[in-house]
Amino acid sequence: MSNAISPELIKTVALLATSVTIVPLFKRIGLGSVLGYLVAGCLIGPSVFKVVEDPESVIHMAELGVVMFLFIIGLEMHPERLWAMRRAIFGRGLLQVGLCGTLLTLAGIYILGLSKEVAFIAGMGFTLSSTAIVMQVLEERGLTSTSKGQRIISTLIFEDLAIVPLLASVAFLVPNSQPDQPTDWTSIGIALAAVIGLVVAGKWLMNPIFRLVSKAHIREMMTAAALLVVLGAALAMEVGGLSMAMGAFVAGVMLSESAFRHQLEADIEPFRGLLLGLFFMGVGMSLDLSLVAHNALWLLGIVLLYVCGKGLAVYVVARLTKLNGREAFGRMIMMAHGGEFAFVLFSAALSAGVLSKDQNATFTAAVIISMLLSPLIGLLARRLVARKAAKNPTEPDIGELDPVEDLQDTVLVLGFGRFSQIVCQTLLVRGISVSVIDRNIENIRTAAKFGFKVYYGDGIRLDVLHAAGIEKAKCVVIGINDTQRIQTIVHQLKQAYPNLPILTRTYDRRTAVELIKYDVDFIVRETFESALTLSRATLMQLGINKIEADDVIEQVRALDQERVHEEVLHGFSNDIARKYWSPHPFIKPHIDAEALNQETADLLAETEKEVKVADIADIADIEEKADGTEQSEKNAVASADNNHKPIG
């Protein structure tokens, strides 16, 4: 057997070990996970320990993390919501990119002494913020769904769109290029065809595919289908010469109203988190520390010039578009750095001959340093603001507070069979909004007829519950008809969300007894309750008035509660009793049973024998327990005498 150790395995273990060690540490001390990933990558990269000597290979694969991140963001962007944001995307976004690009290009020409072409590439590279870093910060601070977060996301969307014309403009910046060269209409046509094809597929093909896969009830196939959608959309856009991340975003938007939305998010999330972290590590690996050491002052000047210039432009645009000072300052701090699209733009400019190798290395290092500094700048800014607020406390400006958003789903219902449909109807009559999770395709189609919003997914999975917004739910209603799954769900919910109220159905008292042990807030035994309703109607049909009938029903309910309480404390009597367990009368019958035919008489005689056997076993069990209790008491007394302590 060969003892050779795979270099790829060593790299993989090093990546995981470094991230697991450093990222939680940085998160704990308040520096954020992004900076932790960047530092971890720098340590194992070619500049320090040289565990990974080819950062480009890591970044190329890890770009899929950014792609999946944009897909998840797209899932949260309904087309109507995106259309409502069109002014923010093409208004504020265009203004910010235009002003930042112009200001940084002029700074490169007149302060750094660069040529117009090089200054334009460097300035526009810094103009595009890191979608990955900004989105990670928004998510960590809980701002993704707020109005402030949505305004920042709209600008990021425009920046992702802007990379397309910027890459096209590189061809016109090549020295001695032909300005009259005809436009490549073929490339433009392919790009348009890719976008149109993706929209068509998202609208008419994706949902039928997911319905087909879900009917197979193979969990890993749903994950495979989710990855196929994300990677297929990214490939289609790359073939069209567009951004892979933009393709994933469009696919996410097209599926944002799908019943499979939360299941897709839960399936993609693990891949997204790992690959996005790997992307940040790849960026850290790309930092050439020898170049930084030899050109420290020059690089520091470039970083300060571009970060300050861009921050100023971002602040000015925010104020011009009537955002308050606090939000404008936050945008300035969060978006002042360069981003990953700068590497793409610089690489294209290097290939075209617009940038030299030294210029490419210098600007790439400057962007990486700005990305490294971004979390530190954000942390410092928040501490300064907090210190200032502590010295000069003021009442908050209500006009600057974000409205509560995405809290419409106040009740989360698991399972959408006939039982849950009635529950949801009742809630909606009262005006209470509901989110429903179900893994049955027919139930989803039925829900569409009722106008309910139902999400495809397995309610037994915590990741699906998280994706469906369980943290925002006021309570959970379990309406599925599988008693074993009900117990599993309750067990998981009580461990993960101990303070979340749980209301559930169950068929029988056995399951009810088990659920009571989990301290479930409300349990309804549907057979018992429907039987009581029919009993009340029967009593009234016999001439008993409503008040007396209700009183009888309450007596029966109280007797049942006493029995359930005993069963919770002591369980069912013994093995034989459990084997032959059947309902027993709450009170002793007034008359004995009477058989009206021979078959019934034989059956009653057989039943009486079984009951006698069970009674004998019960007596033996009780005597055994009594003997054990007596012996335990004797032992306790002896122990107390030995220790000279009284028994309480």
Automatic annotation (TrEMBL):
GO terms for cellular component: endomembrane system; plasma membrane. It is found in: Endomembrane system. Its main location: membrane. Residues 624-633 have a biased composition (Basic and acidic residues). GO terms for molecular function: antiporter activity; monoatomic cation transmembrane transporter activity. GO terms for biological process: potassium ion transport; proton transmembrane transport. Belongs to the monovalent cation:proton antiporter 2 (CPA2) transporter (TC 2.A.37) family. This is Potassium:proton antiporter. It comes from Haemophilus pittmaniae.
